[in-house]
Amino acid sequence: MFLLAFALACQEPATPAADSGVSDRGEAPASSPAPPSLKRLTGAQYRNSMHALFGEGVLLPNSVEADERIEGLFAVGSAYTTISSYGVEKYEKAAYDIAEQVMDDDELRARWVPCTPVDVQDDDCAAESLETLGRLAWRRPLSADELEVLVLVSAEAAVVLDDFHDGLEFGFAALLMSPNFLYRVELGDGLTGGGGSYTGAYDDYEMASRLSFFLWDSIPDAELLDAAAAGELTNDAGLLAQVDRMLADDRVVDGVRNLFTEMLHLDELDDLNKDPTIFTYMSDDLAESAREETLLGIEALVFDDDASYLDLYTTQRTFLDRTLAAVYDVPAPEREGFGEVWLADDGGRRGFLGQASFLALNAHATSTSVTRRGIFIREVVLCQPIPDPPANANTAIPEVAEDAPTMRERIAVHLENPECATCHELTDPIGLGFENFDGLGRWRLAENGATIDPSGELDGGAFTDAWTLGQVVADHPQTGPCMTQTMLQYATGNVADDLDETLVDWHTDGFSANAHRILWLMRDVALSPAFREVGEIQ
Fold first, then answer.
1. Rounded to two decimals, what is the model's pTM?
2. 3, pLDDT greater than 50
3. Among 303, 438, 461, which residue's Cα sits nearest to residue 377?
4. What are phi and psi of 461, to 5 degrees?
């Protein structure tokens, strides 16, 4: 059946011509668009798509094919990953399980099989059902040849099983295991030049797919597909209208949460491991609580306040439940669930860099890690990649000694070794700024009886502790541009080297001029030539 699904993918759908446009804030600079790529749905996109089709009650597999993070994002990794033979089996099983649930649920069956079959084999009723589901699942209309094959599959199964709906189950499963569902087929509107090179612009249905996965992290809704059918997504006015509608829709909250989950590596909290004999406040709930604290704060910053992205590093507002309140040593705002908390000026903790999601994740199971915390600032916040250490490098931290009680003294060996210093001098002085927080994120003033010195400097910006380091990060000249680059990579799935620098700078300037507001940047990127135009495959 999966081979049949792949065969269906070889049917080339008709694609209307498209014209590329410009942002509504004026003519974009001349740029070279990145080449297209075939992107596999990430795990989150797969789950969100299934829920969009069949509701939150549908039971999904615990895991499908693992995502790969490239340049910090699954959205980029999706363009470089395929499906293993084991992954094929998992997607196939999931497709059959979900199709069976649809047919066994009266409400779902009524929604997706709107007609009443006249016999065990009713090709017209099967075609109506498959065409309706296929348009949403594949993000475009099915071609006549594709529909004919799916109807045939359903009919043959229905005859063998002596039941129309049991047969249609096979057709639905074929839709859901097809590469047309599992992959985002966004390759451009035509072939030009020798060697079958694509160039030009994405067509209307491709734009519908790109917009929905960028802004909602899910499939297009019927209204977006209707706009694509009307040719509205390849002209400026139509595209602008849909982008504004989508940004005003509640589903954009899911899109923003996923953007920052990928960017800040919040998914890695699922594997958080701490020694409970050292970190006595560690609990089974802490990782999920830490992730939700960060995401609720981002929601408030982006949607409630439409505030500057830079405020993420300096805000004193956060959202805590009882688990995190105990870790932070503050009163719990609610008996159950999360509540808003304003952190005290003298508490030493503020912004994302004072949260357990950052502090605990970027630490070891038994101790802090100044290197991991410093690398995160460099790579994730400032977009400054740090090379991996040599294979034979000794990365061990010296044991506590009478003359080296705190981490500052113990990591000095890295900064004195020429082979290590090149990288560690970029990361460790930053990480030392967070040493007032242990490996779980608990506040402390001393380590092994010695007072911690968290002072330092980041690219000329001096700080005395984590509180002032948050301001230095917010003021860093690369913090805003890095967010722009990350947004463009997330939206397009391109590695940094494939982005046009002139266009990145243009978006960066606009982001800065518009107070570094995330929703403004999402809108600007959705209207960008980087998002609408497709380069030539070399």
1. 0.93
2. no
3. 461
4. -95, 110
